Structure formats: structure tokens, C-alpha cells
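Practice problem: predict the structure.
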Amino acid sequence: MKCPFCGYVESKVIDSRPTDESERIRRRRECLKCERRFTTYEIIETAPLVVVKKDKSREAFDSGKLLAGMMRACEKRAVSLAVLEQAVEDIEMSLRNSLDQEIPSYKIGELAMEKLREIDEVAYVRFASVYRQFKDIDSFMKELESLVKQRRQGTAL
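Answer:
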């Protein structure tokens, strides 16, 4: 590790401990030349997730973009930001656990709809109407009927 004070490349680790979130390791180091101390942080490097869009173009996965879409669907609904942030975190974890670096956009949309169905049915319908681009009222009604049927099966169990 290069010393930020004198530029010497050799240092020794004096103290090492995880941060509060346990996602990084904080290391106190001492330069072997100037003997000044400095702090470094070590983090796990994750491979970037790439979204493959319908037109076959690719872009980096942006959890903020997913959160914004889900927030739009939940507008004027009693859904807290914390619940949506947790849903986005769950979706991202699911994508990373799939071990695929390139994820089709439809898979992200499907995961978002699953989460919204659990969180708020109205938000789910709003998201689905944009995501699935219903061509007419019949396709929209089929989706609503499917939702009602699932709800009835859930309460009948």
C-alpha cells in the first residue's frame, strides 16, 4: 500500500477491524519509511450486472432506476420507502445469486412485479400495465382476473 504522505510502497498493518456494516474492513497502517499512520478500507469487489434490453443493447444495472420505477407505481399508496428499498435489495441479491452477469430486462421486470404483488396490489397493477404494455382492455382485465383468482386461492388455504 502506497503511503499518502511520502509515497513509499511498504507499510505494516497495525490494526484491522470490520466497519459497522461489516461490508468493509478498516485497516490502520504505518509507513515503514516516514512512520506516519494512515487508514485504508478493503471491500469485496463485485462483478457488474449488465442489463440486456429488448433491443439487445446493454447497460449497467442501476438499482436507483428500479427503485424509481417501483416508487412511481406506489405513488399515493401507503407503501414506505424502506419497504421498496428492501424489495430492490432483494431483487438485486437474487440477480447476483443467479451467477449470470448479463440479465435480460424482462427478468428484472418480472421480479419487480412479484415483489409489488406482495407489497401492494394496486401498485402491482400499475407497474404491470406499464411493463406489460397492455394492448387493450381485455388483456388488462385478464391480468386483474388473475390477481383476484390468486388472492382467493391465498385466502382459501
